[in-house]
Amino acid sequence: MVTGMTFPRSSLVDSGCAGSYHLISRCVRRAFLCGDAAEHRRQWLTDAIRLQSTAFCVDVLAYAIMANHLHIVVTTQPDRAVALTPLAVAERWAVLFPLRDDEGNPLPPALDYLQARANDAEWIAARRARLSSVSWYMKLLKERIARRANAEDHCTGHFWEGRFTSVPLLDHTAVTSCMAYVDLNPIRAKCADRPETSDFTSIQARITDRENERKAIALSAVPDTTPNIVPTLTAGEAGAASSAAAWLAPLRRCVPYSEKTAALCPGPLSRDDYLTLVDETGRLIHSGKRGAIPAHLAPILARLDLDFDTWLTTMCSPSRFLGGAIGSAAARAAEAVRRGIKWVVDRTKIHKPPAAA
Q: Which domains does the chain carry?
């Protein structure tokens, strides 16, 4: 049995195949270093996650940036990194580590500089591996925010607790449940009362993207002679829609842990299904009710194979999304074999128990 133990990252993360993970990092001493007068740092983190997602072969499925910690749900894509040309690897690395002028402003890399990097096979091999690594993803994210915050505060020392947490999500049910938990963090913490006002979360970004798409569709359907009878997209809304579509992974890419467990998993939810699931769960959590799930959500929970008796309790219990891994009994058995241990405990207990023989 695995519980209350710390494992090396290499035993939790299989760098050779696609995997989904719940990543958590907290500010040192859990201080509100991204809250109160430092609220703007939450935007720093949002921008940094967006930038890194254009370079890393890591899909961001969900995120929530709170005043003293952050959650990210990701899926690594090592196959995508392997398929990159050497020049593409060099270009992506230049996005993460740009050349800078004397004033520290980033400079566009020259083609001869990129080509020289691309011709260095050893350098390319090392960077290719890093582009699908959650360790490098989080190392870069945390280090840059820490340096920027320390410079602003005119101080030195740690900004983050030393080690971030990474919990493998072994099947589609685990991924979707963890995404919903992350997206509902501000509601559970009473920082917001609805998903669309949950600032610095992926659920807010998905809602904004959906509304902007609907406005754009409505606008395109209006004849040119009557351009003012429907709301138009502002420049900011258009930019938000395009940026959300560019870096936040669509729900169809919320994939299982590996092909071996794919047969155990249902198909992905639609965006509207997911938004409905999060919204209805948030209503129940916010009101403190433990009633039956609304009838129109039953098909969603059936597809996810969830045990609703523990759903709300799990959504309100942060410690349940930690532990060795999250997944069905079959998926955890396979994961235990991969790690060379007897069993992996799933604290969420959201999966329905196997049917009796």
A: 9-84+131-339 (3.30.70.1290)
